[in-house]
Design goal:
Order of helices and strands of chain A: EHEHEHEHEHEHEHHEEEEEEEEEHHE
Strand order of the largest sheet of chain A: 16-15-14-13-7-12-11-8-17
Radius of gyration of chain A: 21 Å
Number of helices of chain A: 10
Shape of chain A: globular
Oligomer: homotetramer
Number of domains of chain A: 2
CATH superfamily of the largest domain in chain A: Dihydrodipicolinate Reductase, domain 2
Helix content of chain A: 25-40%
CATH class of the largest domain in chain A: Alpha Beta
Number of strands of chain A: 17
Chain lengths: 387, 387, 387, 387
C-alpha cells in the first residue's frame, strides 16, 4: 500500500461520532480504491484515561488531551471535529488557520454568526472542508438525488420529512449536554431536523422561507451527565430547566415552488431512529425511511396504468451509488456505511483538491435555516431565508 | 322484519357519497341487529334522467328532482345531504325546521357562520344530527380511541396526519366543482384535511391554535365538468383561475399540550387515498394508514425490553369495534364499511333519541378550525381557535 | 328494475358461507349492471328457529327446513349449497336432476368419486354450475392472471403458497364438524389448501404430480359443537380422536415445468387468515397476501436496472378487474367482495348460458389433487395426477 | 493493544467469502473487547497477481500461492477455508493434522463421507473448529433462539423457510463453479438451503426425516467462468450440461414433532437474497427476512386480546445479542456484521478452548441432511436422517 497517499487524521472527540468516524477511516481503503490511505494518527480527548482507552480500541496510533497541541503538530493533515457543538467554532477556525483540512460534525455551530465565521476561515485558508451530514450518503438517498436530477420525478411539489426518536422520554433522564442550549444550541432542531433540512436542500433545493413551532414537554430534568449509557435514569438529584426543544415542526417554501413540512422529536415513542422522508413530483414520488435504509420506494407515473405502485428498490446493486464497493445485490449495509461513503467523498476531495458536498457552505446555510426556524417559532410568524 | 322501526330516508345527491350512503343503509340491517330498518324512500337530484337511473340502481323506492318537495313530505324521517358544500346550509336549515333528522356530508358548510347557523337550527328543532366524517368509523380508529381513553398511550405528545391524493395533477384536469371556492369553500383543506382534523379532535382532543400554509400549484385550469369519470383531461377549452388550495399544511397546539402537524394535498403522486396518522404518547404510539385500513400499528412501552416494537393488529377480531358484525378474524372489510358503521351510530341515535358523534357541533368546530387555518395561511401567523 | 331477468335463489346452509353468499346476492345489482337480479327466494336449514332468524336477518323472502322440498319447487332457479361437505353430493345431484343451476361451496365433495358423479350429473342435466373458490375473485388475483396471460412474467418457474390460520390451536377447542373426516373429508387440506390449489391451477396451469405430508398435532379433542362462536373452549367433556389433518404440506410439478410448494395449517399462530402466494417467472414475479388483499406485489425484469423492485399495486383502479364497480382508486374493498365478484360471474353465466369458472370440472380436478396429496402423504411417495 | 492475545490467521480463498472474512477479522477488535486480536497474517490464492492485489486491499501482511506451504508454517494459528467446496476436505484434514484451528465455509464438504472425515480429523487433533453458517449470527436470529429457548413460542409446530435468489436466470449465464457438481456438490441445495437447514437445526432442533424435489430449469449453459462480475452473459460459446439443481424444495419432520417446509432457488426473479423463515409455536410465532435482517417479527399469544399482532422488533437495542457492540438503537447493521459476530464466537472459542457453534459436528449433520434431500429427490420417497 506504499503507493497510496497517506492522509494523517487528528480526531477531536471519541464518543458516538468518534467511533463512527474512526470506523469509517479504517474501513475506507478496504472497500474503495482511492489512491489515498487515512492514517489514524492521533485522537484527542480531555479525559486522559478515557481517550487512551478509546484510541486503543478504535485503532489510533496515539492520543492527546489538548486539541490545541494537535493543531500545532505538523504530522496532522486533517482535523476531525466530533466534539459538542459549542466547541466547533474555536477549533475549526484554529485548524483552518493552521492549514488543516477539516471535517466537522453537524450542526456546524451554535448559530449563524459562528457558522459564517467558520466558513470564512476555511475559505480564507483554502483548506478542504466538509460537514458530516451523513444521511446524504445512504445509497438510496444518493440514488434518489440522481433520479430527481434526471427528471424522473418531474417538477417537485412536496417535501415532507419526520425525524422521530424517543430516547429522552423518561422524565428522570438527566440534563445531558444535548439538552443544554449553551452547549448544543438547540435540541431536536439542531440534532435531528438539521439532517432533514440537509436532505431537503440536497434533494429539492434552497428554502425561501420557513415558520416553526417548538415545544419542550419535560420542563425540568435532574442534573448530571449519564454514566454507563443513555438508557438509565437518575433520581434523587437536583433539577434544572431544560432550555432546548424536545420537539420541533416547521413549514417551508422552496425557491422552486415546492412546499415542505418538517417534524423532529425526541418524544416519538417507539421510533428509535425514525428518519423518514417523502417527495412528490409531477411525474413520480419517492419514500425513504432510515430504519430500512437500503430501500428506496419509487413511484413512476410513466408505469403502465394498472401496474402503477411504489416499488421497493433494494439499493444494493452495483448500479447504485457506492454499490460496487460492498456486497452482492440484496446483502444490505448499515448505519456505519454512511460514514464510510462520506469519508470516501472527503478523501477524494483532498486527493483532487476539490471541496466535497456537503461542506461548510452547506453547514452555514443549514444554520441559517435552523436559526430562522427558531426565530419564527418564538415570533409566531414566517421568516425569509437570507444567506 | 315487521317488528323493526322503519326510518324513511330522503337522500339529496346521488354521486360518490350518494352511492356510499345508499349502500350503507342497505347493508346496515344485514350486519347489525338494531331494531331499526332504514327505508330507501326517495332520492333527489336535479337531473331527472340521472337521478332516476341512480335511484333504481341503488335500490330507492322513488326519486324527486326538487329537494324542497322532499323536505315537505311527511313520509320522510331523515334528510341525508350529499350535495356540494355550498348547498348544505340551506337544505339543512330547511330540513331542521321541518323536523327531519339530518345527516350531512362534510365539511358541514362553506364557512364558520354557515356552520353555526346550521348547528343552531338543529339544536332548536331538537332533531338528531350527524356529520359524515366516516374515517372515525374505521374499526382500527375506534379501537385507537379506546386505547387512548384507557390510557394505554399515556399522555399524548404528538399527533401527525397526512392525507395525500393525486387525482388532479394533470394540468388538463378541468375546473370541477371541487376546485371552485364558491361551491366547496376550499380545496384540499375542506376535502381532505377536514378528515384529519376530525380524527385529531376525536383521538386527541380540542385544538387551541393553528398556523397554516396553502398552495395552488396549477393556477389555471380548463373550464367544464368532467364527463365519464375523473381520469380524463380536457383540451382546447377556455381556462379559468383555480381559487382553492391544491395543498395545505398546518401546525397546531392542542389544549392538552400535544402538538400537531397536518398535511393534505391532491398533488401527492402515487398516493391514491393516503390518509395516514401517527400519535405518540408517553406510554405508547399508534400508526394507521387508510390504504391498509384494517391494520392498527401499536407500540407499547410496557412490553418487555427487547420485545418492543410496533405491532400490526388486524382489527377484525370480535373484540374490535364493530368486529362482531362482519366476518371471522383476518377477513378484512373495506372503505364502504366505514359508512355502514357510521349509519349504525346514526340510526342508534335516532332509536335512542341521542345525538351520535360526530354531530353538527363537531362539524361546526371543524369548520372553525378550517377557517382559522385559511386565515392564518393568508396572514402568515398563528390563530387562536375560539368556538 | 322490472326489465331485469329475475333469478330465484334457494340457498341451503345459513352460517358463514350462507351469510357471505346472501350478502353477495343482495349487493350484486347495486354494484353491477348485469341485466339480472337475484331474488333471495328461500333459505334452508334443518333447525327451524335458527334458519328463520337467519333468513330474516339476511333478507330472504322465506325459509324451509327440508332441502328436498326446495329442490322440488318450481319457483327456484338456482340451488346454492353451503352445507357441510358430506352433503354436497346428494344435494347437487338431486338439484341437477331437477334442472336447477348450482353453485356449490368448496371443496366440491368428500372424494374424487363423489366429485366425478356430481360433474357428470350437471353435465348431463345441462345446468350452469360453479364451485365457490372465492379467492379467484380478488381483483389482485384476477389482475395477476391477466399479467401472466399477457406474458408479463414470462415462463413460470415457481408457485409457492401458504394458507395459515390459527383458530383451533387451543387443545380444548372441540371436535366441530370441520375436524371430522366423515363430515368434511379432510382438515386443512380441503378447507385451506384447496384454495391454494385452485389459485395454482388458475394462475399457473395443471399439476402433473404431487407428494404430501399431513400432521395432526392435537390427537384428541373434547366432543360437542361450539356454542356462541369459535373462540371459546370446552372443558370437562369426553374426548374423541381427531381424524383429519391440522396441517398439510405438498410439493408439486406442473405440466408446464414449474414447481410448486404448498402449505396449509390451522396451527399458524398469529395468522388469522394468512392466505399468501408468490409466483416467479423468467421475466417477473408476483406476491400476494389475503390479509392485504387489495395489494398485488409485482416485479418486472424489464424495469430499468437500478429501478427494479417489487411494486405495491393497490388494485382498486378502474382498469383493474371489477374495479369500475366499486369506489375511487385507493378506497379498498374487503373479503365479502370476493363473493360479489364471484356471483357476478355466476349470474353472467346463467344470463349467457355459459359455464363460469371455476365450475364443477375445476371442483373435480381440485378433488383429484386433494386425494392424491392425501394418498401420497400416507404412502410416502409421489402420485401422478390423472383426471 | 499489546496485552491482547494475537491469533494469526491464514486464509485460503480471496473472493466473496475471502472479503467477508477479512473484513470481519479487521473489525472484530474495533467492536468487541475480547482479549484477542486476529492478525491478518497470510492470504492464499493460486493466481499470484490476483491474490497479491486482494491481500493488499484487504490488509493482509503477506500472501502465498500454495495452501500446503501455509499449513506448514509455524506462524499461523488458524486456517480459514474459503475455497470452492471440493477442496475443503483435503485442506481441512491437513490443517487439523498440523494442529491449526479451522474455520471452514459452508457447506462443509461435497458429501457426508467427506464431512465425517473432516469431523473426525478435527476431533482427533483437538483443534477448535467452526463452519461459517453466518446467518445464525444475525442478532434477530440469535434473539429468536433466546425467545424459543425461554419458551416464549411454546411448543414448536411449524418451521418454514425460503431462500430465493435470481442471479443465474439468464440462460446465457455461464457454467461457473457454483453450477458444477464436481466442484460444489450441489446447486441451490448446498448454497442456499444449507443455510435454512442450519437455521432450522439451530432454532427448532434435529430433523428426523425428509423428502425433497430438485429441478434444473436451464439444462445447458455456455462454458467459461465470468469475467468482471456476475451480471453479464456470454455468447458464442460451446455449451455443457448443468448437473446441479437450480431449485430445490423439501418437506421434513423434526424430532420434537414439528414439521418443516424448505425451498431454495436461484430462479426467484426479483429476490436478490430473499432468505426468509417463519416459525409457529403453541404460544407465539416469529417471522424474519434477511432483506430487512435487523427486524424480527414476533407474535405472542399472551398479548391482550384485541392487541395481538406481529411486532416489528428492530433488534439493535443493547439488550439484543451483540447489540451493545455496535450503534445506538435504531441504527441498523448489515450483512457483513453477521461475519463479525461469527468471528467473535470463533475467537472466543479459541480463547476459552471451547468449540463454538456451529462447528464441524453441525457441518457434518447439515451435510447428512443435504445428502438425504438429494437422495430422496431422486428416489421419490422419504429418507430417515441418521447421523
Amino acid at each position: 500500500m506504499s503507493h497510496k497517499q497517506k492522509v494523517r487524521i487528528g480526531m477531536i472527540g471519541y464518543k458516538f461520532m468518534g467511533k463512527a468516524h474512526s470506523h469509517a477511516y479504517r474501513d475506507l481503503p478496504f472497500y474503495f480504491d482511492l489512491g489515498i490511505e487515512p492514517v489514524l494518527q492521533t485522537m484527542v480527548g480531555r479525559d486522559k484515561t478515557s481517550v487512551k482507552l478509546a484510541s486503543e480500541k478504535f485503532g489510533w496510533l496515539s492520543y492527546e488531551t489538548d486539541w490545541r497541541r494537535l493543531i500545532e503538530r505538523e504530522d496532522i493533515d486533517v482535523i476531525d471535529i466530533g466534539t459538542p457543538n459549542n466547541t466547533h467554532v474555536e477549533i475549526a477556525i484554529a485548524a483552518a488557520e493552521a492549514g488543516k483540512h477539516i471535517i466537522c460534525e453537524k450542526p456546524l455551530a451554535l448559530n449563524t454568526q459562528q457558522a459564517l465565521n467558520m466558513l470564512k476561515a476555511v475559505q480564507k485558508a483554502g483548506v478542504i472542508h466538509m460537514v458530516s451530514y451523513n444521511y446524504r450518503f445512504v445509497p438510496a438517498i444518493q440514488y434518489a438525488k440522481k433520479l430527481i436530477q434526471d427528471g424522473m420525478l418531474g417538477e417537485i411539489y412536496h417535501f415532507r420529512a419526520q425525524y422521530l426518536q424517543d430516547w429522552i422520554m423518561d422524565p428522570g433522564f438527566p440534563l445531558v449536554w444535548r439538552l443544554r442550549k449553551d452547549v448544543c444550541g438547540s435540541g431536536s432542531l439542531g440534532d435531528l431536523m438539521a439532517h432533514s433540512i440537509d436532505l431537503a436542500r440536497f434533494l429539492v433545493g434552497e428554502i425561501k422561507e420557513v415558520t416553526g413551532m417548538m415545544e419542550t414537554f419535560i420542563k425540568k430534568r435532574p442534573l448530571g451527565e449519564m454514566s454507563g449509557g443513555l438508557s438509565a435514569s437518575i433520581s434523587g438529584e437536583s433539577f434544572a430547566d431544560v432550555d432546548v426543544d424536545d420537539a420541533v415542526a416547521a413549514m417551508a417554501r422552496f425557491e422552486n415552488g415546492a412546499v415542505g413540512v418538517f417534524e423532529a422529536t425526541r418524544f416519538g415513542k417507539g421510533n428509535r431512529n425514525g428518519n423518514r422522508l417523502e417527495i412528490n413530483g409531477s411525474k413520480g414520488s419517492i419514500r425513504w425511511d432510515m430504519e430500512s435504509m437500503n430501500t428506496l420506494q419509487l413511484y413512476l407515473e410513466e408505469d403502465t396504468p394498472g401496474m402503477q405502485g411504489f416499488r421497493s428498490i433494494n439499493c444494493t446493486e452495483s448500479v447504485h451509488p457506492y454499490g460496487e464497493a460492498y456486497w452482492p445485490a440484496g446483502h444490505i449495509i448499515g448505519y456505519e456505511h454512511t460514514f464510510i461513503n462520506l469519508m470516501h467523498d472527503f478523501m477524494k476531495g483532498i486527493l483532487t483538491n476539490t471541496n466535497p458536498n456537503p461542506n461548510f457552505e452547506d453547514g452555514y446555510r443549514n444554520q441559517v435555516i435552523l436559526d430562522a426556524i427558531e426565530k419564527s417559532a418564538s415570533a409566531g410568524k414566517w421568516m425569509k431565508i437570507k444567506y
